[in-house]
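Have a think about this chain, tokens included, and walk me through the fold.
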Amino acid sequence: MQRIFVFLAAFALAHLDGTSIVPADEPVAEAGVSFNGKTSYAEAANPTAFDLDQFSVSAWARFRRTDRSQVLVNRGNPGSLFTLYLYEGRIRMLVEYAPSRYTHANVAAPATDTWVHYLGVYDGQTIWLFVNGRCAASQKAPGRIPQADHPLLIGAAAPGVRVLDGEIADVRVWSRALDADEAATVAGRGEVRDGLVAHWTKDSLDGENWPSSGATSLAARYLADPKIEPPPDSTLPPWQRTYTSIAELENRKLDGYRGIWYFNQPQGDEYVYKYSGGLGTYSCKHRPFAIYRPEVNKTFFCYGGTNEDGTTLLHMVSFFDHATGTVPRPTLLVDKRTTDAHDNPVIAMDAEGYVFIFSSSHGTGRPSYLSRSKRPYEIEEFERILTTNFSYTQPFYMAGQGFAFLQTIYLGGRAIYFQTSRDGREWTEPRLLSLIAQGHYQIAEPFGAQKLGSAFNYHPPGKGLNWRTNLYYMETSDMGQSWNNAAGHSLDLPLTECDNPALVQEYESQGRNVYMKDITFDADGHPVILYLTSGGWESGPVNDPRIWQTARWTGAAWDIQGTIRSDNNYDFGSLYIEQDGTWRLIAPTETGPQPYNPGGEVAMWTSTDRGTTWTKIKQLTRDSRYNHTYVRRPVNAHPDFYAIWADGHARQKSDSRLYFTDRDGTRVWRLPVQIPGDTAKPEVAW
């Protein structure tokens, strides 16, 4: 690859950010093979031919649309082996360089109806992505693609999944890493035969038969209309789409409490992942996970569970009986058919005591569900009342008014939407509140039965979703009919500009990332936002200092404080403001067995001066085997069940248990992994 480095020096490193695409010298003149965006794909014979130490893959592509994920060439499941594809406004060359560890080089997506040539190269050390014959991005990825028997697919990730809506031409695969001169030759429609494994052109396509002119003459089978269920119609807004793959309500008991283990974005170093671990109570943008109801003296809760093999995400619901100190066998509500903890459930309860479980989805590819218990204050049997789509789910029941539901919908970005329902069955049309650049992560919380507040960051344009910055706040006192900033000034919605009246604190010019954690209100109804700032997205000390910060509205201005340090962006804790004015933070602020990975050992902190200074009054967990993650605050938290969380190994797949503690941190209990009978008492863990 020596010539690649010489080439990069000659063309300047400005191309490495992928922000500019140099026009092709010789664009495709003829039409390519058309893919319909719904059902068409091509599958190559003999998948072992693509089991390679090094490789190069290229294609000319013309997209009819770029507002959803589409695949050019793929081998393996999402995040495995290799994929050349469009995803959230970027073209990516993804490589799994070690088992369950992947990364990618990426560039800006092209304009629609424009032919562009892409070449992805992997030499065992680095991923290179060439655009129209010129190197546009690279990413370190030392290793070797795992051996597997997955077929090579063209135009889709799998039948009916991420199908190309456009045309593709001149698809080639080599068993070695091409250099920069060869990349320019291929983009110019020239021949590079050394190491050529397969070469498909439009001219060689004869109906379903698509023979290759490569050295091995590998044939592909092209299916324009296979008999598979098409994905939901992406021309409709997500909440109006029809989903064909619907998970049935299970309504059955499991024999114990097991949390889901999940990872996101391997980063190729000792910390392994951007974030990972036992994420049964993930993410901060999902809330609430637990609710105390004094009418029956029970704390009802839900979590992302799994089976004994840890191979699927199960939506689980249960309760802690404060009178008996026991938990029942948890109820399995639905198998979400994924291991993605972004699909975790959340819980809400209405005035009559009916339990509502909102089953979220990560993006628009899978359906979301709303289920309701058939009887008040019981979890034995649920009914499905809605199949739709929503993400990062935050429903709250407002006494006397019904449900207020803040959510994220993937429509032109990660957009904040709001809707209401009097009974949980009939819902208003979702209303767009904010979509600035690529969108937001938000956290929401009610104050009493009238006020509902939302705090959020934003993704700057052109930098990718790992960059999130600034802090914003909005609130409503009329069930979403109007929205104001903390000072009471009306907001013109939807918000579309980063500089707007909802801005609490500007961090973009400081180069600081902002990670949302919690939001609550003081006795005067003034919001207090808990968040963490850091220097970047990767795990490890490179992005220190990571600072837990609070933003408190004083009635006249925002008071920003922060002294506690953390070692990972995805450390998560909950903030409590108690009747005597004490601020209490329960969070994994202490270094755990997997340092600089999400979570750690859980500690309890208090502040008597509104966050100016903090005192660590107790460390709740010690000498743990795994990191503890995502400590959640129940609605109307009972002193005996004041926080719930999970644990898990943060650098490799593991089992995951669930825990809770009391207000004073006198005990930490572990929910039983095995329950021989109908109920059991949680065991004391610390």
